[in-house]
Amino acid sequence: MKIPLRSTCAIILAGSRPAGDPMAQARGIAAKALIPVAGKAMLAHVAEVLLAHDAIDRLYLMAQDFGPFWQDKDVAALQTDGRVHAQTSNATIAASLDGVLDDVAYPALITTADNVLLNAQMIDDFLSAARSADIAIAVVEKRTLLRRYPASRRTWIKLRGGQYSGANLFCFGSPEARRLLEYWAEVEQDRKKGWKLLTIFGPWLLFLAVTRMITIDQLASRVGKKLGLTVKIVSMRQPEACIDVDKDSDLQLAEQIIAERAGD
Hints:
Mean pLDDT: 87
Number of helices: 11
Structural class: alpha/beta
Order of helices and strands: EHEEHEHEHEHEHEEHHHHEH
Helix content: 25-40%
Strand content: 15-25%
């Protein structure tokens, strides 16, 4: 028997980097979140999946300027949904999340506007695995991705037992999880370099990780101990979970996968 998921608020990070996004600039589009994927803005794909899920009872959109968003026909429809709240971002992602998390009920699911392949099964699996953790982080193991999409290129963190790519799904299961945000603020401008986060927790932890002397779960346990939190890594079984749209080849692959899903 499937255990019902707790009511969850969701947060979509849909803002722009200070220098802008090359993909959006090349297309003359105001924000990356508005780039069309399979004929619909990225943000609309992600928001529709979240709002259709039984566990999601409130959705926060976070961006610096919502003017262009409300001019997009698919995104503009979110304005009339009483569950959706547009929150103007602060200077950093960490500061923006801290402001939103003042008002939410936990758990809080966090994802990004370019996570266009998100689906209900991924949400089910992630939230089920995230139960009882203060912080849960979704990843995909390299073999899981390459078995299905051998040409896909991601950024990998290499540890004992596997190589992992982030899946742009996080769950803050308790108010105490906000302790992570002060560390997030230090690395968010260089978020693709996963090792940089570990330098904050001390040279010994970094040494164990770069020499592949610990597994990803042991790493999470040690980071959690430093923070005084329960940190859980959720290894996703869906390879699509780590395919966000960061470059043109990602966009082409995402559109191919969406077309295949529609055909099925």
